[in-house]
Design goal:
Layout: H1 3-34, H2 42-48, E1 66-69, H3 72-82, H4 86-90, E2 106-112, E3 127-133, E4 139-142, E5 146-149, H5 155-166, E6 174-181, E7 186-191, E8 197-200, H6 208-214, E9 225-231, E10 234-239, H7 240-245, E11 258-263, E12 267-272, E13 278-281, H8 289-295, E14 299-300, E15 304-316, H9 317-324, H10 326-335, E16 344-351, H11 358-361, E17 372-377, H12 379-391, E18 404-405
Parallel strand pairs: 1-16, 7-11, 12-17
Antiparallel strand pairs: 2-3, 2-6, 4-5, 7-8, 9-10, 9-11, 12-13, 14-18, 15-16, 15-17
Helix pairs in contact: 1-12, 3-9, 9-10
InterPro entries: Poly_export (IPR049712), Poly_export_N (IPR003715)
Keywords: Signal
Pfam family, one: Poly_export
Length: about 400
Amino acid sequence: MSKNNGIGNSRARFARSLARLASGVALLALSGCLVPSDGPLTREVLDAGATGGSSYKIPETKMIFDVVDIDQRVANGVTTLGTPSLARTFGFGGAGGVPVIGVGDKLQVTIFEAGPDGLFSTTESKSTTIPVVVQPDGRGQIPYVGSVRFAGMTLETARDTIVDALKAKAVEPDVLVSMAENESRNVSVQGDVGHAAMVPLGLSADHLSEVLARAGGATKPPYDTYVTLKRGGRTGTVLLQTIVDNPKEDIIVKPADQVYVTYDPQTFSVLGQTEKKGKIPFGAASLSLIEAAALAGGGNLATADPKGYFIFRYENESVYRHVVGDDRFRDLLAKGMTSDGQGRYPIIYRLDLAQTQSYIVAQSFPVRNRDVIYLSRHPATDFSRFVGMVTGTLAPVSTASRTVQTF
């Protein structure tokens, strides 16, 4: 064979290789359009996030969110700032000060006199007990004293006021004022408790757990029971398990607080290339991403893309600002990002399981109630399925080729 013929054959083989490569690329691109999918590819999720830059145009119908890679800084911020806290919302509270008399309270006012024939004494008894109900105007009536404004007074102040008013009228008067029924210092406890009630507060500071106990306690497991406290215009919600585990969350309640106890089992949903799909219960008070991945059975190595492990969530503003920065957050708002009505904004977190450190970071990244976890498929699976559709040889992946990776 001549030298020229050898060179010609090499060029021909090279040209055929290029043609096959071009055909493969074209088929791969075409497969993405024609092959039915069970969710977006990794690059499609990343491309769906709002990119930075003032020239970026956002269609009016597009939801605006950011896609954030999980690293240790992000995991720490989500854990610290994203964990609900009654203490952060309301403060722990102090001793509560000295209790005062309020509207509706029922008092027992006992008046003593030194002489046997006084205004409030007889030969049989040197005292008289007068029941007093504090009226809506804050006042109550005492014979020979008249109208006394009890609301806002302590029991000791009320005693001194009555004694001073009787000094010129009674014989060496002394007075004892006690609380017969506490109607003004109550906390409302409703929901999944032993018995919903208006729980009266004692003279000392009462913790939230004590008030719940007086209402019969929660009827469901603490890791699936939420406690919501409303005070004025503020509302805070935590798991009952959080109050049990963290004494700082067992805050001191105040009169007129409203407490709602709700049974709502924590779950997360799993989609994509995992062994288990659907809604999965936590079965615990907290759950890390690594634990959630294990509950989902791990990823399918034959079809999963390790670079595409995503967590879809609505995140609190403080957490969002921490993970993306204030400037980025304002940019997203300018582009049209909106909240869900509860002050939370859409975000997607991504874990790249092709990176070794991701398996460590995932141990400290918390999964939240109602999170959606999605493991995308590998792009090569689309091409394989497309070829199978064209050639008619599409078949399920063999058992031997399917291995499960538990993260």
